[in-house]
Specification:
This protein is α/β, with parallel strands linked by helices. Helices cover about 30% and strands about 30% of the residues. The strands form two sheets. Strands 5, 6, 7, 8, 9, 10 and 13 form a seven-stranded mixed β-sheet that branches. Strands 2-1-3-4-12-11 form a six-stranded mixed β-sheet. The protein is globular, with a radius of gyration of 17 Å.
Length: about 250
């Protein structure tokens, strides 16, 4: 089976190690006999309508400005794919632009695509940076690294990704982090979220397989040793991240 993974705005929205999410999906897919096809999408390209998974990262305010018009142009496609259950992961800048808007420190409003309804982000004076630990009923303990000045406020109609146990998350006040819409996850966790959180990686692969009428296979015997080594490295990385001060 093949899965087409679309890397959204690879040129302008790819900082703080967000590419690691693509690599984690690719490796976990290959160990289960899936052939991943990585397709970059940048401004002006033709969006692949047969996308199985869509991954987007963070970017500077200038990068968000560069992609704004194009993102609004392809918004109907993204909304349609999201309604069909296509898994998507949006980090930091693109998480903000999947909401209603991001207001920069200069007061400029960059419009979002409103997939996360009622979610608004305003640039704050304090940068929220450091390791972060969260609790999710679906994914268990989520561990990552946040680095953002945007303060995101979730509407009552939007599901959050997790509750923050250590760190800031969406904003310093309400101890929530990220947002959910169907199989779309928005989060501030950089550096990167999927390698440190294989439960979320498997969720994306499982849902993508389900959309094709297939089940996600177990790790193939020839990759079992690699998988166990990867698990050991992942466990070590999670423990180190939890033990480090912010």
């Amino acid at each position: 089976m093949k899965l087409k993974i679309v890397w959204l705005y690879a040129k302008n929205m790819n900082i703080y190690g967000d590419y690691g999410n693509i690599l984690a999906l690719k490796k976990q897919a290959e160990m289960r006999g899936i052939k991943p096809e990585i397709v970059q999408y940048n401004e002006g390209d033709e969006f692949p309508l047969d996308a199985d998974i869509v991954i987007g990262g963070g970017g500077q305010d200038s990068g968000q400005g560069k992609i704004q018009d194009d993102l609004l142009k392809i918004a109907p496609i993204l909304r349609d794919l999201a309604k069909k259950g296509v898994p998507m992961l949006m980090i930091c800048g693109l998480y903000q632009l999947f909401g209603e808007y991001f207001e920069t420190s200069m007061g400029e409003k960059i419009s979002g695509i409103c997939l996360f309804q009622g979610v608004k982000t305003v640039a704050g004076e304090t940068r929220m940076i450091g390791n972060i630990v969260e609790d999710s009923a679906e994914f268990g303990e989520i561990i990552g690294y946040e680095n953002h000045s945007g303060q995101t406020f979730i509407s009552k109609n939007t599901e959050v990704l997790a509750r923050v146990s250590s760190g800031d998350g969406n904003n310093p006040e309400n101890h929530t982090e990220g947002a959910r819409y169907k199989n779309v996850i928005g989060t501030y966790l950089h550096g990167s979220i999927l390698p440190k959180n294989p439960a979320i990686t498997e969720f994306f692969l499982r849902e993508a397989c389900k959309n094709k009428g297939e089940s996600l296979l177990e790790v193939l015997p020839e990759f079992r040793d690699d998988f166990e080594k990867l698990q050991q490295i992942t466990d070590m990385a999670r423990q180190i991240a939890k033990s480090r001060p912010r």
